[in-house]
Amino acid sequence: MNPSLSDRALRRVVNIEPGEGRALGWAFAYFFFLLCAYYILRPLRDEMGVAAGVANLQWLFTATFFVMLAAMPGFGALVARLPSRRFIPWVYRFFAVSLLGFWVMLSLDIGRVHVARAFFVWVSVFNLFVVTVFWGFMSERFGYERGRRLFGFIAAGGTAGALLGPSLTALLAVPLGPANLLLVSVLLLEIATRCAMQLVRAPLPEAAESSPTASSQAEEAIGGGVWAGLTEVLKSRYLMLICVHVALLSLTSTFLYFQQAAIVAGAFESAAERTRVFALIDLSVGLSTLAVQLLFTGRVILRFGAGVALALLAGVTALGFAAIAMAPVLGVVIAFQAIKRAAEFSIANPARETLFTVVTREQMYKSKSFIDTAVFRGGDAASGWVYTGLRQSLALDASAIAWLTVPVALAWAAMLLKLGAMQKALAARHSPAGARE
């Protein structure tokens, strides 16, 4: 791959500087195959959540949270002892092997209900761990200034994969049966792992914010304690605000997910039909996201900053729940889900990942992992029980719950603007040698 040729080609759609093309291309491919592997599984996970019982969703979310907590010490130990070029393959191949185990159980129809519940939890854990490892590596590899320019394009690689994944699922779920799609996901996960190793070896010119040894960081173990992710969060107001953001994102997403699951379960009887519907929802989100990421995300983050980009998602969330409050029907819920997730994936997620480019390496991996897994799934679990309590204990309908969510989303938007200002202040305090706060 000729860097000069790649630079010239990529400059048409992204604000790229000389020498960045090869690394950017591998990062794009890495995320493409990673999310393609996940999005083949996501519609199957959603169908298994329905098959296990919509009334049991809060239990599945709670189980996911506790599995996350159990996994955190092992992940922390792995990150502390191994350089990123080694622990990334370990993480991805562990999930690939466990996925093969699910394929065997589903193919042999062993304990279908229990396997469905375990698979729902496993995919939820898989998604957050593999993606948080990806973005931690991107923050380490590209840094603050490059991240603001390039993360939108890198995220577009994931969106392209998110388009192909549900397309394959929608096309093949009925004729092949969902279980056989797991083997395709295993293959794509291995390709993503190999792209990550190519990115480790891809050269990047030293940026002004980078240390002289930044290009060799993938060869160095991060060190620190197993629970450093939690302790670093507790010491940092900046990281605590990121936790609040993730918790509110989880709350609003869980409320919307429960409403979607209940409506789809009542509208379709066939498992294959429900899988197809969930896949088509994912496909519509991907189509509306890709163009924004390729053409606008980097420019929006550079022009307005991460705070405004994130607050845009909170604003969309407030408007969407107001729409559901006025018309809690299938069409409105699906449209809101598509618009919200498109805003999240196209602009808010790349903006959120730039938040971790101004912290230490240990915080990039360990604190980010704690936030993206334990905090996110803890928020899911708590939100699931809050939603269930509002519906059952207080007998509130979907419209009333939506009205309660609107002011929460508006307060969330105000907090995100403050978080963006803190990121700019931290970035401004970087020394020329790249010392991080």
What does this structure look like?
The protein is mostly helical and 437 residues long. 82% of the residues lie in helices and 0% in strands. It is built from 13 helices and no strands. Residues 208-215 and 431-437 have low confidence and may be disordered.
Protein traits:
437 residues; globular; mainly alpha; single chain; 82% helix
Overview in brief:
The chain is mostly helical and 437 residues long.
Topology order in helix (H) and strand (E) letters: HHHHHHHHHHHHH
Give the strand content.
under 5%
**Major sheet size, sense and barrel closure:** none
Enumerate how many helices there are, as a single number. Answer: 13
The low-pLDDT segments are 208-215, 431-437
Shape: globular
Helix content: over 70%
What value does the average pLDDT take? 79
Gyration radius over CA: 21 Å
| Count of β-strands | 0
What structural class do the secondary elements suggest? mainly alpha
Distance, first to last CA: 36 Å
List the helices and strands and how they pair.
Layout: H1 3-10, H2 21-51, H3 57-81, H4 84-107, H5 112-176, H6 181-201, H7 228-235, H8 237-267, H9 271-304, H10 306-326, H11 330-354, H12 361-393, H13 398-428
